[in-house]
Amino acid sequence: QVQLVESGGGLVQAGGSLRLSCAASGRTFSSYAMGWFRQAPGKEREFVAAISWSGGSTYYADSVKGRFTISRDNAKNTVYLQMNSLKPEDTAVYYCAAQIVPLGSSWYGGSEGYEYDYWGQGTQVTVSS
């Protein structure tokens, strides 16, 4: 089992920045890829970004490419989402997710929610215009 806890959400003006963190804990016997998803009110959950176990492979949704950066610190069991140039349409609850992958895999995790095995409880990000 892996427990995921997000933090760092909040209220920010358009053009501002936030950094989300997702701390993983629990008993893990293999490596895992990590992803960030978001869900706005009345909308379906959508993929934001993902990163491989080593951090060597990353993938972004077109809507955030060039503005958001996903990274991880395996020594701290934490994945981050640096969000710059925020827009009102970025307002959503942001979730991190973990996908168990073979040890040493370069697979970034995929962009579909069903590919992930564990989810955090989410953190609210609100961008005002």
Summarize the structure.
With 129 residues, the protein is mainly β.
Protein described:
This protein is mainly beta. Helix content is 0%, strand content 49%. It is built from no helices and eleven strands. Strands 2, 4, 5, 6, 9, 10 and 11 form a seven-stranded mixed sheet that branches. It has a four-stranded antiparallel sheet with strand order 1-3-8-7, with no helix packed on it. The termini are far apart. The model has no long low-confidence stretch (mean pLDDT 93).
Query: In what range is the share of β-strand residues?
Result: over 45%
**Segments where pLDDT lies below 50 for 5+ residues?**
none
Count every beta strand, where a strand is a DSSP E run of 2 or more residues: 11
**Overall geometric form:** globular
**Structural class assignment:** mainly beta
Q: Termini distance?
A: 40 Å
From the alpha-carbon coordinates, what is the Rg to the nearest angstrom? 14 Å
Biggest sheet, open or closed, and with what strands and sense? 7 strands, mixed
Q: Name the average pLDDT.
A: 93
* Topology order in helix (H) and strand (E) letters: EEEEEEEEEEE
Helix percent band: under 10%
Can you count the helices?
A: 0
